[in-house]
């Protein structure tokens, strides 16, 4: 039997006004919201990095305010994926990596590259992008040193240890539903995000040694919650991936790969935050797969 991979289930972002008084207790200081969420989930996506470059001290603070066994997924800047659309991105990628990402140390999990629905699959463009991505933290630090002068005095280009660096790609156009794209991801060992939504393709092709899922809402984008049946189905899929196999109902572009002798790590993030469903659904799914969080106050407050 394959040794199971690590399952992490969490939320996408943690700073949402409607959550205050619902998920977060009344009166909880805003600066304590990450602490509170990190006690309940083993991983969270950092969304702020998508909208603007952060500073090294922010990453340091986030690392300090989470437990030792906590992991962040980091969302790459939309400037690279949505505005530049992967054109002339060497400096922007270096700037992103130099903004303090490596300050997370062992808490740095997968980097998420999300592409807009209007972004179509172009084999040459995507292969050049995948080839640019660093595969470990030493390579990331080396690339970060090529940042431009905008980061002068606010950069971090060191790593405390050489660690593997994981990347995941979320696509929202049917033009990516082609074996050529799947083969390309497998060649570079980049995960294809399984995005559950009513608007974009939901693909479950395995392209790396880990699985990355984003659950955006079962019926209404970013808003609707997941019922018992939906959560049972997702729990079954997550367990199959963690064992190294694949769920029987997986939707793929290519045929299923052979089961692994070792399991896969699985990351699942709920992004249905508009109606305060994300924390509830994430906690419910964590219970169903047997990873209900314990009290974990081994961090600064």
Task: Characterise this structure.
With 301 residues, the protein is an alpha/beta fold. The chain has a single domain, classed as Protein of unknown function UPF0759 (TIM Barrel, Alpha-Beta Barrel), CATH 3.20.20. 30% of the residues lie in helices and 14% in strands. The protein is built from ten helices and nine strands. It has a nine-stranded parallel beta sheet with strand order 6-5-4-3-2-1-9-8-7. Helix 8 links the parallel strand 5 and strand 6. Helix 6 packs parallel to helix 8. The radius of gyration is 18 Å and the shape is globular.
List segments where confidence is low: pLDDT < 50 over at least 5 consecutive residues: 296-301
Number of domains: 1
**Full CATH superfamily name:** Protein of unknown function UPF0759
Distance between the termini: 41 Å
Strand content: 5-15%
Number of strands: 9
Structure summarized in a few sentences:
By secondary structure, the chain is an alpha/beta fold.
Secondary structure layout plus pairing:
Blueprint: E1 7-12, H1 33-40, E2 43-46, H2 48-51, H3 56-64, E3 71-75, H4 78-83, H5 90-98, E4 108-114, H6 123-132, H7 137-144, E5 167-170, H8 179-188, E6 191-192, E7 194-196, E8 210-215, H9 228-243, E9 265-270, H10 278-288
Parallel strand pairs: 1-2, 1-9, 2-3, 3-4, 4-5, 5-6, 7-8, 8-9
């Amino acid at each position: 039997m394959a040794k199971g991979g690590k399952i992490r289930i969490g939320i996408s972002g943690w700073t949402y006004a409607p959550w205050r008084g619902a998920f977060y207790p009344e009166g909880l200081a805003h600066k304590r919201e990450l602490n509170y969420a990190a006690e309940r989930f083993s991983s969270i996506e950092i969304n702020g990095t998508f909208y603007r470059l952060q500073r090294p001290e922010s990453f340091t603070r986030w690392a300090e305010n989470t437990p030792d066994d906590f992991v962040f997924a980091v969302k790459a800047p939309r400037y690279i994926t949505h505005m530049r659309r992967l054109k002339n991105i060497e400096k922007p990628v270096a700037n992103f990596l130099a903004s303090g990402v490596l300050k997370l140390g062992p808490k740095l999990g997968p980097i998420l590259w999300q592409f807009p629905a209007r972004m179509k699959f172009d084999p040459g463009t995507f292969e050049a992008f995948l080839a640019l991505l660093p595969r470990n933290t030493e390579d990331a630090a080396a690339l970060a040193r090529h940042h431009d002068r905008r980061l002068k005095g606010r950069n971090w280009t060191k790593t405390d240890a050489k660690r593997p660096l994981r990347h995941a790609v979320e696509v929202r156009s049917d033009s990516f539903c082609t074996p050529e794209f799947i083969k390309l991801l497998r060649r570079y060992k980049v995960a294809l995000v399984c995005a559950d939504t009513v608007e974009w393709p939901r693909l479950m092709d395995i392209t790396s040694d880990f699985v990355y899922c984003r659950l955006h809402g079962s019926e209404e984008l970013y808003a609707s919650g997941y019922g018992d049946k939906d959560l049972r189905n997702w729990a079954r899929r997550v367990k199959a991936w963690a064992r190294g196999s694949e769920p029987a109902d997986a939707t793929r572009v290519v045929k299923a790969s052979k089961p692994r002798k070792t399991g896969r790590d699985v990351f699942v993030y709920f992004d249905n935050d508009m109606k305060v469903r994300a924390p509830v659904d994430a906690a419910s799914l964590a219970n169903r797969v047997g990873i209900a969080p314990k009290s974990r106050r081994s961090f600064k407050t």
